Task: inverse folding
């Protein structure tokens, strides 16, 4: 009986150690991969059309989901915000609430989550399928580096698109808040805009939001290209990689958001 | 075999972790000749191609291509060597997001500064050589298996390589496409003055076009010779392979305990 429980404890330790070892090895590989992407970025920037093409696929084609989601989130913020603020007689501050919520938090975070599900998963699927159908190997055999030719442009396409999408998300969100708060509910338009203008600081609020979305863009794009490149070259392997891209990206965005927020707004 | 060989492999060993794939393989591919490596699935044929292309490094042994040791090459040297090699992958590995024309033009655009008009003429010449000039506007998804293989062939010869390697070029093709691909492989090798290495398990198609054959089994060369020598061979492995016999030196059954023992095993039904 004792022998059995000792062996099961040893087995547990072995399993945990095995997973830890695997995880660390993968993390090390991802870090090395990131360095490789940066090293070969120069080559891909010299052929800018490759990166511009990826900005189109990752950024422009994500516009619809970003704009529609931003509009609805802004409208919900307008309703919820008015409901709370009017209890304290400060419904004119609705513009401030909507703008700060969006620029500081919801814009970068929700846009990044949507970007991870829309563009990140597509990037992983494309690279993973290229690997499964030996296209990456063929490229390598033709003396064309797949990291410079395929991975780096996709990575930078995502990094550049992310802050732009987050900015558009926030802008359309503010418009959604205006539609509900001013047009539908009847909050004073002058107060809505002037309080927003007076309270939203460009460096402190807007710029920090841009920094956040840039960091999220790096994280999501890196996870997406790495998971695609590291995919097991089978149908099941690629689907597993896509799933990991979405899950890891979401966790990374939320964890990084906490870290960044605690550095940026600690004076509050 | 003539002394002037483009590829010289001596006593090559290769293993994935602890699993040995190649054991002491020695072979030569003479310039201008078409040589086939044959063997059953998983015998190490494709590994041999990947070693020659520098995608894998041997555990031990020497591997020279055009007098240079491939395993000792730096990344840049390897890429310079690969520009002189063409490889056709088992299922073509065409880039699915670009057209047939762009697939063939890919290497010319990547590795040369040729003007677009010249690239156009060269691409059409290569596609004409494989009979698909009329399909240059199609996307890879619109091609049949045989057509895709021919486009991949045109892409492999885009820069007139010194060494062309084919990985199972006949796999999954109908008899007509097989014959077409086989004849193209022979004609292109002779017309380009290239050297060709063909990895296949399709004995009959390959025997019609090759100059020399190596048989690989369990990571070792078990027989070699010209197609006539192979047909006349009394070696049991070669005989089994050439005539497609189910049992022989290569067993039909995967190693297992005696059948009766498996059937009578207690708890076999839970």
Result:
């Amino acid at each position: 009986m004792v022998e059995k429980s000792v062996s099961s404890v040893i087995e547990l330790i072995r399993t945990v150690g095995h997973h830890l070892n695997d995880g660390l090895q993968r993390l090390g590989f991802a870090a090395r991969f990131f360095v490789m992407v940066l090293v070969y970025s120069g080559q891909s920037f010299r052929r800018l059309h490759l990166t511009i093409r990826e900005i189109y696929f990752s950024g422009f084609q994500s516009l619809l989901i970003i704009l529609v989601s931003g509009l609805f989130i802004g409208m919900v913020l307008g309703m919820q915000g008015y409901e709370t603020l009017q209890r304290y007689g400060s419904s004119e501050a609705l513009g401030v609430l909507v703008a700060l919520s969006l620029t500081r938090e919801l814009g970068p975070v929700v846009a990044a989550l949507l970007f991870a599900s829309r563009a990140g998963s597509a990037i992983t699927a494309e690279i993973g399928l290229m690997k499964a159908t030996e296209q990456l190997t063929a490229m390598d055999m033709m003396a064309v580096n797949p990291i410079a030719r395929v991975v780096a442009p996709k990575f930078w396409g995502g990094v550049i698109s992310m802050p732009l999408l987050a900015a558009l998300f926030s802008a359309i969100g503010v418009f959604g808040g205006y539609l509900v708060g001013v047009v539908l509910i009847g909050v004073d338009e002058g107060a809505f805009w002037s309080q927003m203008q007076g309270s939203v600081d460009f460096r402190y609020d807007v710029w920090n939001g841009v920094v956040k979305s840039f960091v999220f863009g790096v994280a999501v794009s890196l996870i997406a290209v790495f998971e695609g490149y590291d995919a097991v070259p089978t149908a099941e392997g690629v689907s597993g990689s896509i799933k990991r891209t979405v899950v890891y990206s979401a966790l990374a965005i939320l964890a990084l958001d906490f870290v960044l927020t605690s550095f940026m707004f600690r004076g509050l | 075999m003539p002394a002037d060989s483009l590829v010289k492999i001596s006593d090559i060993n290769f293993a994935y972790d602890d699993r040995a794939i190649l054991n002491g393989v020695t072979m030569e591919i003479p310039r201008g000749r078409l040589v086939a490596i044959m063997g059953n699935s998983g015998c190490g044929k494709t590994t041999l191609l990947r070693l020659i292309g520098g995608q894998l490094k041997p555990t031990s042994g020497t591997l020279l291509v055009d007098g240079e040791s491939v395993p000792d090459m730096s990344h840049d040297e390897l890429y310079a060597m690969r520009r002189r090699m063409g490889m056709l992958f088992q299922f073509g590995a065409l880039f699915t997001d670009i057209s047939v024309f762009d697939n063939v033009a890919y290497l010319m655009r990547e590795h040369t500064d040729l003007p677009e008009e010249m690239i156009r003429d060269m691409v059409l010449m290569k596609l004409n050589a494989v009979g698909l000039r009329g399909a240059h506007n199609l996307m890879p998804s619109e091609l049949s298996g045989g057509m895709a293989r021919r486009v991949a062939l045109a892409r492999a010869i885009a820069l007139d390589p010194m060494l062309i390697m084919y990985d199972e070029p006949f796999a999954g093709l109908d008899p007509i496409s097989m014959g077409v691909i086989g004849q193209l492989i022979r004609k292109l090798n002779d017309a380009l003055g290239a050297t060709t290495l063909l990895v296949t398990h399709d004995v009959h198609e390959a025997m019609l076009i090759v100059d020399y054959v190596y048989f690989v089994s369990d990571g070792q060369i078990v027989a070699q010779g010209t197609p006539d020598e192979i047909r006349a061979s009394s070696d049991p492995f070669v005989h089994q392979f050439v005539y497609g016999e189910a049992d022989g030196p290569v067993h039909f059954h995967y190693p297992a305990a005696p059948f009766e023992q498996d059937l009578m095993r207690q708890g076999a039904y839970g």
